[in-house]
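Re-run with default settings, no changes from the original entry. Doing this only to confirm the output is reproducible before filing.
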Amino acid sequence: MFAELTYRLGVDVGGTFTDFALVDDVGDVIEAKTPSTPDNPGEAIERGLVELSNRLGRPMDSFLADCRLLIHGTTVALNALLQQKGARTGLVCTEGFRDTLEIRLGYRDRRYDFRYPPPPILVPRHLRRSVRERVDKLGRIVTPLDEDDVLRAIEVFKREQVEAVAVCLLWSFYNEEHERTIGRLVKEAMPETYLSLSVDVAPQIREYDRVSTTVLNAYVGPRLSGYLEDTERFLRELGYGGPIRYIQSNGGLAAGDVIRKRAVLAINSGPAAAPAAGVFVGAKLGADNLITMDMGGTSFDACLIDHGRPDVKGITDVHRYRLAAPMVNINTIGAGGGSIARVHQGILAVGPQSAEAYPGPACYMRGGTQPTVTDADVVLGYLNPSALLGGRFPIDHRLAEQAIADVVARPLNLSVPEAALGIFEIVNRNMANAISEISLERGYDPRDFILVAAGGQGGVHAGELSRELAIPRVIVPTFASTFCAFGALSTDVRHDYRRSFAYRLSDLDLSSLADVLRDMEQAGYADLASEGIEPEKVVVLRQLDMRYAGQVYEVQVDVSGVDWSHVDKGEIEELLHRQHEKEYTYRHQDGIGEVINATVTVIGKLPPVHLPSIEPAGADASHALSGERPMLFRGFSGYEQCPVYAGAAMQPGNRVCGPAVVEEVNTTIVMFPDFEMELTASGAFLMTRVD
């Protein structure tokens, strides 16, 4: 299916911009970027495709006919959750467990804040219907399922016009018979209703994690399924006839049929592609310890990559809702170019509220009056004062100055430049804190990593972030503004399988555990085969969620290298000690080890993207000098004229010293004083602080 590619197309629909990256077999990359249209995402997609076809000099239907793979990242599922616009959902649960969604884990998110409310419950109590049945912890049926209870629940759902039904029974992951029966009855009576069974979505131990994930899947599933159907039909009408794959939260790809059934796998689609792009760029420069940052118009995403492997979490909270599904550990905060600056009780704050694409920053001339980070960057001289996107997007710097003056400068008795610098520094501090949370607070020293700056605004702020965190080097790819769209092109097909297998090591039957891992592995091979992946292109990873007895958290222990035909319990125990020591700096040598879950990840390798290297030229970049403009940096007594270089005119080997700016078509790179930058043979900019 994936042989003889002519074009591969990545599409990332964000809150402010929709990004496109097109790569051919030669390695030429063509980018496009259009403002998002949240009410009709297809409008922005069509505009971007028109732009790509114009750059290729080919009709749209012709170039789409030669496109062999389209990969799509979307925030539809996440937006449905954030905006509380998901499906009207019903829940079927075991009698006595109707209120698990409200009890949650038994404590508040902010334990000492009695006024902090819980998140809105996605299923109201009258739509949470309990049924008589019981399975014990060994999977034995103690109380048979009362099907009359199920039928009464179905009548309630039909009367209440429920769009999706979630089913989560106690211990069903050890015996799925009752859930399957309920699923059959629901489908017979309500064939058009979206069905979410915990044995399909999250077959693992821990009641709240499982029911929350199953409900989330039902809540966002119909909205995401409708979007996928509309988008696929729309693309077919435009002339695309090849396969469509979607970015999952785990950073891999999956077919639409997989995503429709398990919609929670796409809850963080789009941003999850960034680490793959980071790994690709880092490998070109021989680096595998990376921190990726993607600063777009609405948000800032940061991810740590340790020795070429992004951190993936099995359980996380998505806007206060528990999700038990593999997700790349991306720390997201509201800090983008559209983040709004405001004065609250005499204190300047930036974000998380965003002006988004409409009306956008004040300088966009779309009626926005609130000052944003982009407005501050314009006032400081970092961004072109008259147009962005290579001159295709006109702006008005006077509107930026006026918004900052009205909302920030006057209330704080500051000049407009001082206020703009304050906005710039506060958003940088917010982003530095977000990076610290995934590095310093988890035992990683940022000085051991390289910062990969992406997003339309990433290159503007990366230098100051590296200074703040003492990160020695910064990579800015030439495709920084379409980073996630390109990351989609360098990602492989991936499926994760998890089964609960809760035993102490002393009681563990290693042959039974090996059988569980083997069954999941075989299921993975079968699923990849259905997507056209040949067995020799499959990579298998195995992990165990383990802990010491008495602990309430687990560490993920990699057992991919274990020979299960000769393994002993001492080897598994030593792997637990090593991982625990790595994450928490100590090992409990006399502790009793426990296995909680077994996980298998299968990765179907796609043909890699090959970008050609270019022979370096000399260091002199004077031929790329396009002009100069006044800029203001901390420590300057005022604005100073600084050089501006055209990134498209620079050649590998060219070096530029700060203070200066390099302008690409879709992004801008600011070199602060004491920094220098070189365009490498791989086509990425490498920024280094000069002591």
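The radius of gyration is 26 Å. The mean pLDDT is 91.
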